[in-house]
Amino acid sequence: MDELFYFDYAATSPVRPEAAAAMMEALGRFGNPSSRYGYGREAARRVKEDREVVARALGCTPDEVYFTSCGTEGDNWALRRGVELNRRKGRHIVTTAIEHAAVLETCRDLERSGYEVTYLKPDRAGRITVEQVTAALRPDTALVSMMLVNNETGVLLPVAEAVRAVKARDQAVLFHTDAVQGFLKVPFPLCSTGADLITVSGHKIGAPKGIGALYVKKGVKLAPLLTGGGQEDGLRSGTEATGQIAAFAAAVSAAAADPGRLDRTAAMKDYTLTQLKAALPNLEVLSAGDVGHICAVTLPGYKSEVVVRVLGDRGVCVSSGSACHKGRPSHVFAAMGLPKRWLDGALRLSFSPETTREQADVLVSALKEAAGSLFTTLS
Hints:
This protein has helices spanning about 15-30, 40-60, 70-85, 100-110, 130-135, 160-170, 240-255, 260-280, 305-315, 330-335, 340-345, 355-379, and strands at about 5, 65-70, 90-95, 115-120, 140-145, 175-180, 195-200, 210-215, 285, 295-300, 315, 345-350.
């Protein structure tokens, strides 16, 4: 395969050169940040500087940022220790039916432990309203978890408005948002939403896999999910992954230094959708996405897993939903109540600031060719 035409940035992104260079440098200075001699103190100083970079991007103070291994760890930490912190409040959780598996599976596990969970259903456009959230609140609601950007539709959920409404109703309810697809992909700092707990991940923005962060608002006394040596101010034990942390901070800095990245990404998404609709009259747009990097389409009458495989053989990478589904039907599209023919042919396309028109044209051509060759067997 000579060239890869990649349209699955919502699954993961290539490691940025700046991030790779920062990681290699950090791996060369291998001191343990918890060691008391000079080499260790130097490593601790670098971690402190990297934390400050991530905190600035989030819009918070460095002592509210705790490094994790990934978004899944952050979601588990926020939910499991959040409801534990609020256990005197009650054992009721409000979330949405379109959350990432890291939230949904954690909620299902908590249900097995005696918690009650309300799963809010989206409308046909994949939207959840503030009114749905407040209507679901009960006197025993301990925590609300609502993602910021849906990873399959690109819909921006009204987190800031929901936080205000929930806190106006009951200040004691904790509010968590999985903002993995929103970090540096929306034109506002995540902490401006007012959420108590915010999960982010590095590999969606050009850092390597294996690094993320959890924002814990000052005053929220969250207990650790992992215990041990007491790193991260005692809240996340384990020797700091200095290489991944350095790469995360470098990727954040690189994104912050490119103010036009969101507009470029959105322009490429819009161009691609326009070209697809012109080339494939039977294609339906499931969601144009509120953010610039994600949209969803469908080819009714086709099987998305077959289309994904055929495109992949041509070097064109798209998905039929979250990579975590591993080929299973998308719970997000199903929750939207779409017709089965639309569900069967659903495809997610996701973009980066580096996506070009030439790459988009290859995608359109390959999808048109695939639809033509598969039509007789899948119509």
